[in-house]
Write a structure and sequence with these properties.
The complex is a heterodimer. By secondary structure, chain A is mainly β. Helix content of chain A is 0%, strand content 59%. In chain B, strand 5 (43-51) and strand 6 form a beta hairpin. Classes of the chains: A mainly beta, B mainly beta. The A-B interface holds A 6, 30-31, 33, 35, 40-45, 48, 50, 87, 89, 91, 95-103, 105 and B 31, 33, 35, 40-45, 48, 50, 56, 58-59, 88, 90, 92, 94, 96, 98-99, 101-107.
Chain lengths: 110, 113
């Protein structure tokens, strides 16, 4: 299965760096996605990891360790507009089941 | 423009009534998904389909039904057996290759009258 755990809430300061962690069960695991979701809106894709290591995309980076069942999303130079929920999702199995964690609500303060 | 369309945006259900939520995509995606989101919560998988005429139960399929008669369409019926249907419902689609992200519709907000 894909039990996925994330912290419920985090607060960080504008201009700072924040790391959002995600752990998952490795059974049948294919890859891991990160999405951003603003309140009342649909999620939007941020990054995907299938191999161990760091993927960088501008201010956002995502890391994966398959052996540890662990990922994190790193947000640099935080802006007020980064206040949102960040969802970790794992794909598994031949039918490409995609399961989400509960999401981490990030509040960026001045 | 290619995209994924959900309708209606808001839906009200009476007690004992079945309602159907529409999801259409013109992205030529193989796989389609339905999720439920409750306030302050993550997305929970209801049903998913990788190909036409085939679908799989997700983690909370009870009280819901789906069909996949066309590649573009994956409607979700919320039946009267679903006793707590009030939620935000999100449809998603993707190419079935494992490294492809999901594209989401704008969601349908279902409430009980």
């Amino acid at each position: 299965g894909q039990n996925i755990d994330q912290p419920t809430e985090m607060t960080a300061t504008e201009g700072a760096i924040v790391q959002i962690n995600c752990t998952y069960q490795t059974s049948g695991f294919n890859g891991l996605f990160w999405y951003q979701q603003h309140a009342g809106e649909a999620p939007t894709f941020l990054s995907y990891n299938v191999l161990d290591g760091l993927e960088e995309k501008g201010r956002f980076s995502s890391f994966l360790s398959r052996s540890k069942g662990y990922s994190y999303l790193l947000l640099k130079e935080l802006q007020m507009k980064d206040s949102a929920s960040y969802l970790c999702a794992g794909s598994s199995g031949g039918y490409q089941k995609v399961t989400f964690g509960t999401g981490t609500k990030l509040q960026v303060i001045p | 423009d290619g995209g994924i369309t959900q309708s209606p945006k808001y839906l009200f259900r009476k007690e004992g009534q079945n309602v159907t939520l529409s999801c259409e995509q013109n992205l030529n995606h193989d796989a389609m998904y339905w999720y439920r989101q409750d306030p302050g919560q993550g997305l929970r998988l209801i049903y998913y389909s990788q190909i036409v005429n085939d679908f799989q139960k997700g983690d909370i399929a009870e009280g819901y039904s789906v069909s996949r008669e066309k590649k573009e369409s994956f409607p979700l019926t919320v039946t009267s057996a679903q006793k707590n249907p009030t939620a935000f419902y999100l449809c998603a689609s993707r190419f079935s290759s494992s490294n492809q992200p999901q594209h989401f519709g704008d969601g349908t907000r279902l409430s009980i009258l």
